[in-house]
UniProtKB/TrEMBL annotation:
InterPro entries: TatA/B/E (IPR003369), TatA/E (IPR006312), TatE (IPR024905). This is Probable Sec-independent protein translocase protein TatE. It comes from the Bacteria. Residues 42-67 are annotated as: Disordered. The gene is tatE. Belongs to the TatA/E family. TatE subfamily. The chain crosses the membrane at residues 6-22. It comes from Cedecea colo.
Length: 67
């Protein structure tokens, strides 16, 4: 009774399509995909900008130790 079968998932999916319509679901999926893509791009930009900053500090420390 607590199991979720394929039949139950198909009925739920059909109800969602009937409730929202295919156009609304298509636009929702596109918006979700764009948001995930933007999030991944921001994470990659953040990581790439953090690496040169830490690399730039190391030569400055070496120069200050030589004085």
């Amino acid at each position: 009774m607590g199991e979720i079968s394929i039949t139950k998932l198909l009925v739920i999916g059909a109800l969602i399509v009937l409730l929202f319509g295919t156009r609304k679901l298509r636009s929702l999926g596109g918006d979700l995909g764009a948001a995930i893509k933007g999030f991944k791009k921001a994470m990659n930009d953040d990581e790439s900008s953090a690496k040169p900053a830490s690399g730039a500090e190391a030569p400055a420390e070496r120069i200050s130790h030589k004085d």
